[in-house]
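Comment thread on ticket #2218

A.B. wrote:
> Attaching the input chain for the structure job we discussed in standup.
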Amino acid sequence: MLPIIMGLVLAVVHYFSERIEPKNEAIKHKAVSFIAGISITYIFLLLLPEVYEGIESLNQFLFIFILTGFASSHLIEKHIYQHRSKEILQEQLRIAHSATFFIYHFVIGVLLVELVSINVVSGLLFFIPILFHTAVSSASLKGIHVSIRERIMLKIILSCSTLFGVLLAYLAVMPSNVLHAFLGFIVGSLLYIVIRDSITKETQGKAIYFVLGIIIYAFLIGISWLV
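C.D. wrote:
> Ran it. Output below, let me know if you need it in another format.
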């Protein structure tokens, strides 16, 4: 039941992400820096160790999924920019971005169910960074082209992508090697998103909020290790 609630929360946040994002630039940079600290901490202290457990079933091939998750979005956009005419470019980007968005959040839904079934605390610690990114990063629905967002049915489908993944995970048994492959893909994707969109560049952002995010989430993860 908990993953379904999480999926519904993410669907609502996705749908209203344009309204949720802070309008004040100073507040936005602080929020993004804080979330980046949380995300980096979660990736290195929980996700990567969790992924590494899949080395027994996938061997070194596990790291291919991490690389694929990191590189796929960048390569899709780069290929379209370099090999499509200007007239086709925007439509191709919209389709590619929408498809990538749906797949990424669909896989997150599958992982939510699996992680919560293993350990509720791990599921919650996974959910929190995803929720924050849903609200403020380009991985949210507001990063999708306005022509897609204005189509109500498409917007609803994209907003519910995580919920669809949750429902599939309840209906289908997930082999451990597939789970770790999905997890590796999400680790790579999340790393790409954090590095590209969340770690503020040059004079933007506030280092103290980045450090604060690291300290707070490292503390919470440390507690989860002791429980």
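A.B. wrote:
> Thanks. Noting for the ticket: The chain has one domain: 2-13+30-226.
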